[in-house]
Amino acid sequence: MKTDICIVGGGPAGAVLALQLARLDVDVTLLESAQSYERSFRGESMQPDTVGIFHELGIAETLLAHGCVETYRMEISERRRLLLAIDYSDAPYRHKFVMDIPQPVLLEALQARIADHANARVLRGAACTGLLERDGRVSGVSYRGHGKSGEIESRVVIGADGRYSRVREMSKLPYTKLPMNRDVLWFKVPVPEGWSNHTAHIMLKGARHLILLPTYPDLFRAGVNIAKNSFAGQKRQGIDAFYTLVDGIDPEFGSHVRRHVANWRDIHLLDIFTINMPSWSRDGLLLIGDAAHTVTPLLGQGVNLAIQDSMELAPMLANALCQDRLGSVLFAEFQAKRQPDIEFVMKVQMRQERLLCAESSWAQFVRRTNYAALHRLRFVQKRISDRIAYKRQRAMLHFDECTNNSGMALECGFTQTSTVEKQCGVNRS
Fold first, then answer.
1. pLDDT digit string, tens, across residues 29-64
2. Which listed CATH number (3.50.50.60, 3.40.640.10, 3.20.20.70, 3.90.78.10) goes with 2-39+103-175+277-357?
3. Which residues, including other chains, have CB under 8 Å from residue 214's CB and lie 6 or more apart?
């Protein structure tokens, strides 16, 4: 089989990239090792900018018809004392709120749109087993699925296979893995009676914390931190050790957990680490999303950064195909565009990691002081939110202001028709 772009990994980033390339009339093949998406996912919290992307892609109506949960507010508290509240209602954008969307529903919606394009194909149950090379350049992949082996020749291979990326390992590209001081035990419980299912919580007690994220249809996706590599010891102590862990942070919620988490099968371990790579690419191969820049799972940033990678990359690839300039210069340009946003999120997350896991009395005092200051300084909240949650919408508002005035549009550097549309044509169906 031959294709222009072969994407390994059919998660949100891979599927969004495949759809965008298909709309730009690029021949694209998407490999996904899972035969079915009916399994538990964690990356279901979509930032407001990502919700806007779903509208651009034409899948928002399908997602809304299924059902979702919006988060209007986030609260950080210590021993039930409120330290910081962030209210998203006042954001001056069309899409204000974090939205929880079941990932199987999202992936099926994306793949239904991909199927509308004859120049795109999805191979489910097909696991990448190796990289093909010709003259030192990656020229495709080998794969195995349904008891058969095959090869796909492509002009570019995209590794979009997540935090445990096999493509990253096969590429031999250097990277640094930085383990955090904690792991997280994830579980789901119904929202307790009297609690809002539109408010996210971070509940603190000493160096322990409990994260509660509103989840469709009426659940909290909850995470409690444990010491790094301590899960095996926790399990040996029995399920009561887990109950005691949650009780120690918030006894009321702990009682609720006891009623709804029956055994260790209801609990999932997430190893917390980051990965930094000097280069996300080599000739013929580019990594995106968590495969290239693994962030911590704090408030679901990874999936959103990955989708934004795809939206940035698709027109660059399509344009480069038209001009026959695929190569290291293009990949370096893409990394240079995306790196500042990735580094900003990582910087914010690393600071939060230190605050959440503060052990000494002094460090916990600093944490309370930081959160209390941020609670009062709404303009700082806005600056951070505009960079992480609303950057795309903010840029589009600026674009609209510029294009309402042709002279201003020239000053801003915007044109009515994109380079890709001019050179390649765009299939907007």
1. 999 998 877 765 555 899 999 999 999 999 999 999
2. 3.50.50.60
3. 69, 70, 71, 100, 191, 197, 198, 199, 200, 220, 221
